[in-house]
Amino acid sequence: MTRNKLAHWLCLLIATACLLAGCGGGSGSSSPLPPPLPAPPPQPDPPFESRGLGGFTVIAFAQTETTVAAGTDGGIYLFEGDDRWALKTPQDWSILALEALYPSRLMASVRVGPESSLLVESLNGGEDWRIVENNFGVVAGFQQREPIQSLLFRDDTGELFATGYTSLAVSGDFGRNWQVLDGEWGGIGTGLPALSHASSRDDYWYGGQGALEDPVLLAFSRSSGARVDHSAAVESLLPRPSTVERVRFYPGNDDLVYIMGEGGLIASSNYGVNWDALLVNDRSRFYFDLVIDSQSGVLYTGGWDKNFTDPQPLILEISTDSGLTWTAVEHEDRALQGGIYSLLLWEQAGAKRLFLGLQGGGVYEARLSSLPGHL
Questions:
Q1: 3-class DSSP state for residue 34?
Q2: How far apart are CA 96 and CA 221, in angstroms?
Q3: Are 336 and 361 in contact (CB under 8 A)?
Q4: pLDDT, tens only, 221-239
Q5: What is the value of pTM for the model shown?
Q6: Backbone φ, ψ for residue 369 (5° rounding)
Q7: CB-count exposure of residue 247 (10 Å: 0-12, 13-18, 19+)
Q8: Rounded CA gap, 200 and 22, in Å?
């Protein structure tokens, strides 16, 4: 074989080897595989999860030693985990107020039927309940007493406070005997569901709605017996018909006070001297409650459109700047009974959980790790 032929065969062998080995970057099946695609980022947990009691309106929560009690329009329930609750009272009890005096001692104001009301207590964390005979709202000449609208316990003094239609009263024996501090029993009004204590001044702020569908907000000084009426200031921002549903003070700063009611949420940064609108609307959208994380300062609230039957979205509103700006987080299912009636920031063993009590929609939990402002 001549030298030229030998060189020709060597070139053919080299070319064949390159083809078999995939040389030359051809597009055949022997080409190298493309690099694998990066793994998709993990999907975040949904911000809300149902915790049961669907069909009930959750008026109030109370934390016990080991769990949470929910006061509803169908009795008082204890949380057993996941979406399970155990009914601990008759189901015809409609709860007006629920308060934990101590982790094992709870009290509740109950309406039974259109004309009967009770004060009840539990001495074992909500497992069993008994009626408390008492003199709240008893007026000479009237057979029917007025129901307790709100309850507030001071564990530093052992005193229990309550409101009626137009009254603020105190009991030193766990609700048996009551003394009117401000207002009167038998007054005309639709009730005073808001009650809070400004500890730095020993003042009691309470409110609701008057006889003319006007918002009522009063601050009573226990030491002087004086009363300051903030009702006109509230009505300037939440025009009638309106009502005050809740009063909350910023942790460690009583000068900063928040008022929730029909038409929105307002606040004062100087103990009621001046007021500002934070979340107001002209649709009669109620704001019933507000919780404030005492560690982070984050505010959580939510509203309810005045509609008892039709679905409405579940919208949690969050502020990380004391209420100046808000971020709304909405459940993706708009067919829920999503109006918010009550909230509880449940702290247990160093962990926090945010429970939302809905109108007709039971209990939902908002996952704090999925919300703005979570630390």
A1: coil
A2: 25
A3: yes
A4: 999 999 999 999 999 999 9
A5: 0.87
A6: -65, -15
A7: buried
A8: 83
